[in-house]
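User: Sequence in, structure out. Go.
Assistant: Echoing your sequence, followed by the structure tokens.
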Amino acid sequence: MYSNFVPIKLHNNADALVADLSALSEKPTVCPYCQHHQLYAVNSSSGYYRCKSCKRGFNRSLNTPFYRLAPLEWLPIIAQRRLCGQSYTSIRRELNCSAWVIKNRIDVIDEYMQTYYPELYQWYQDFVNDVKIDEPKIVQQQVEQLKAWVSGILQVADASCPHCSSTKVQKVGEARAQFRCKSCWRYFSNLKGTGLDHLGRCENWFTMIDLLVEGKTNREIENTLKISSGTMIKAKKQWFDIMQQHNLLILREWITNRRG
């Protein structure tokens, strides 16, 4: 939902923009040519109507920049997705259409936003063009929540042996939550079942979270952390799964949308 990403002071502008676009697909109440009120539908997908009096056809987008951009129902959807930071590609896949169709409609929506909602447009341009902006408060909170959970697991000092249930265990090393049982002398990790057990090099975990939140590309993260592309892809998927499991959905959406 775009309200999670658009600054609070711009919520009214964003809501008004979406309302303007949603209204385009509603049934007209009067003929713009002869002011007659008796109309009938010609094409429901385009919101196209014809006047029973003058027989002329039109829809609510007549005399607007959105004329002939059917289906009009797509316009508020596209605007909302862009306010969430989604790329052309992700919107195209959702609506199952060509990239040109999406680009054409986004260009018109951008011009309309610039004209009628300039403050929203300025924020939006920085947002979708990856200019450095502050993460929304809810995203910052979920980042802190994720890091606190990871820290809690890594820093745990006591555990119960999963093999013999003994609590007489010794932590092995400081970096990962690994233990040795003093009763059965078997080793085990407190990471099992958390999703973190599938991630190597725990010293990189917090840095990777920060890089994902900043919107860095896979290649940029690979170069920073000195990891392979295969490791990067698997790690990113694992972090997304962890966010899903812990209901950090806004954080997951933020990261996904920043790079489409």
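User: And one key feature?
Assistant: The first helix runs from residue 11 to 23.
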